[in-house]
Design goal:
Length: 450
């Protein structure tokens, strides 16, 4: 097991690592993205493929990514350089770190804009703007937000400042304490929303939509989206979880910890879907409404609930927090690398990355209004950034991680690191990492791109 230390600090316990990794994993991907891509890709069959991707590819690759991080104890770029050297492999394996840092940066740019929507909704909710609102009015409010570059830019700026503020101070101060309290509250609120959905007319239709497997609706593109999302939701393939692994205490079992994180992450996504789709059907909305799905549906539910203003406000506060703890992990790999490489303070490194990602974020801001007709490969700048990172860079990163950890690092070292107590299970994991996961990723990528 790795005994060397990290210059960036450590999680004080296994529990704090679980919290931080869950904070990274649970975010807009679960609450905003999962429901809307499920809606766009036809429901049940997509959910099934997504769950398979989590189990067969996501969990094994996540165990590998955290292990590599803890072996290297540096930013993903330097970790990969060091591990390649130690394993007598080509220094080019550092590409995993580079590609990841780039993907993290690109995702941060649009993630901040969407998180800005949640901030804006928090204020609207608290103002009581959604009380007794109809589906049409809800759509109009959302449309007005997207139509205003100024509004979007203001909230994007606020969110980016919040994110960079925490990254600059290091992860131990502040965030750990906040997440410890906020994650459980998020679960409770999702339960309340689920309870509301349960009592609505659309419940059985919603459940049917999510869990009846109509494979005729499954296309190669939707399989690619499911795989990409498995990576996105678990924060895999770009080094975020590798960076967090680098700060993990040496004597904790990585495998067990990863399974807990993946389970919590999946539970939040499924609960968000079960809360949203019944409301969609009860109000005659379209499940394939796209990125606005969450923002157009849940306010209707809160508007009808007693004390909906309080619950609604709290809900969007929590979505913002979930996004916050994820955004921090998007910036961490590249900020940690700048600190190591140029010996500058975290403040400076975080400010440089924050400012650049903010500027790039404007492309996403404009994708919803003045640039909505600017298209490349039939995609707006936002769609393109999302597609390139989630559906291509993350699976590619995951593929390289699986191959490197499975084939290049010595098996004894891996065995020592991952903490899978049963030899049979370890062999199963290694087999998945060496053959199953890479082949599945290659098949999906090749099919999807052709
Ligand atoms: N997992 C986050 C979510 O589901 O919202 C997004 C994310 C964070 C993706 C960190 C990738 C990452 F490295």
């Amino acid at each position: 097991m790795s005994e060397n230390t990290s210059m960036h600090g450590f999680w004080k316990s296994r529990w704090l690592f679980i919290l931080a990794a869950t904070g990274s994993a649970v975010g807009l991907g679960n609450i905003w993205k999962f429901p809307y891509i499920t809606g766009e890709n036809g429901g049940g069959a997509f959910v099934l493929v997504y769950l398979l991707c989590i189990c067969i590819i996501g969990i094994p690759v996540m165990i590998a990514e955290v292990s590599l991080g803890r072996m290297g104890r540096q930013s993903p770029i330097n970790t990969m350089k060091a591990l390649a050297k130690r394993s007598n492999a080509s220094p080019n394996w550092a590409i995993i770190g580079w590609m990841g840092a780039l993907a993290g940066f690109l995702i941060l740019s649009f993630y901040s804009v969407i998180a800005g929507w949640a901030l804006s909704y928090t204020v609207d909710m608290a103002n009581g703007d959604f009380v007794k609102i109809s589906a049409e009015e809800s759509g109009n409010i959302f449309g007005a937000l997207l139509g205003s570059p100024t509004q979007l830019t203001i909230w994007h700026t606020v969110f980016m400042l919040l994110t960079i503020g925490i990254v600059a101070r290091g992860v131990n101060a502040g965030l750990e304490n906040a997440i410890k309290f906020l994650m459980p509250v998020l679960f409770i609120l999702l339960f309340i929303l689920f309870g509301y959905a349960l009592s609505s007319d659309g419940f059985s239709q919603g459940v049917n939509f999510m869990f009846s497997f109509d494979f005729s609706k499954l296309t190669t593109e939707s399989i690619m989206v499911a795989l990409g999302h498995a990576f996105f939701t678990l924060s895999l393939g770009l080094g975020a979880i590798m960076a967090y692994g680098a700060y993990m205490p040496a004597n904790t079992s990585i495998a067990k910890t990863v399974v807990i994180v993946a389970f919590l992450d999946t539970a939040v996504a499924i609960m968000a879907g079960l809360a949203i789709f019944p409301i969609v059907f009860a109000n005659g909305l379209e499940p394939s409404a796209g990125p606005g799905l969450l923002f157009q549906t849940l306010p209707i539910a809160f508007g009808q609930m007693s004390a909906g203003v309080i619950f609604g406000t709290l809900f969007f506060v929590l979505v913002s927090f979930a996004a916050w703890s994820s955004a921090i992990s998007l910036a961490e790999p590249i900020v940690a690398w700048i600190v190591e490489r140029f010996q500058v303070s975290r403040y400076k490194a975080a400010a440089i990355i924050g400012l650049s990602a903010w500027v790039l974020g404007l492309a996403t801001v404009f994708s919803f209004n003045i640039w909505s007709d600017v298209k490349l490969f039939d995609k707006t700048p936002f769609d393109l950034l999302d597609f390139l990172t989630t559906n291509i860079l993350l699976p590619l990163g995951g593929l390289c991680i699986a191959i490197f950890a499975g084939w290049k690092v010595s098996t004894t070292k891996m065995m020592d690191e991952v903490g899978i107590d049963y030899p049979v299970l370890f062999k199963l994991w290694l087999f998945t990492l060496r053959f199953l996961a890479p082949l599945a990723i290659i098949a999906v990528l090749v099919n999807g791109l052709i």
